[in-house]
Amino acid sequence: QVKKIFKNFDQDGDGKVNFQEFQEITMLFPRMGVFEILDNAANEFSFGYYGIPKSVSTSTQSPLNVFLSGGVAGLVSRTLTAPADRLKVMMQAGGKDARIGTVVKEILAEGGVGAFWRGNGANVIKIM
């Protein structure tokens, strides 16, 4: 099993694992510990330059489920970042003298806290 791990780490086949080769393999597993990385390196499919661990190589989810999950993720991310996006657009439209405090006060005067989400419906529809 050690030979199999070494073979997966040694990308150029020179019989040595240099820092760059080790780094490229380990950055694919950022949340794993060293032992998990080595275990996955021994049990992976080689796919071109990189390997795909067997544990994530097959999906049992339906394409519709994956599609809907992506849509919901997009909806949530757009809604959570809508206030920052609204502030950015207003500052761009305000010219050189637009300051964050001034623009925030304008948005609040325009329609209260809810005004930060004005136009979010169109952003969400673009995702769908």
Number of DSSP helical runs: 7
Mean pLDDT reading: 77
Name the structural class. Answer: mainly alpha
Roughly what percent helix? 55-70%
Order of helices and strands: HHHEEHHHH
Helices and strands, with pairings:
Elements: H1 2-9, H2 19-26, H3 34-42, E1 44-47, E2 50-53, H4 54-57, H5 63-94, H6 100-111, H7 120-127
Antiparallel strand pairs: 1-2
Helix pairs in contact: 1-3, 5-6, 5-7
What does this protein structure show overall?
This protein is mostly helical. Helices cover 63% and strands 6% of the residues. The chain is built from 7 helices and 2 strands; from the N terminus they run αααββαααα. Helix 1 packs across helix 3, helix 5 packs across helix 6 and helix 5 runs antiparallel to helix 7. The longest helix has 32 residues.
Essential attributes:
single chain; 128 residues; mainly alpha; two-stranded antiparallel sheet; 7 helices; 63% helix
In short:
The chain is mainly α. It has helices spanning 2-9, 19-26, 34-42, 54-57, 63-94, 100-111, 120-127, and strands at residues 44-47, 50-53. The chain has seven helices and two strands.
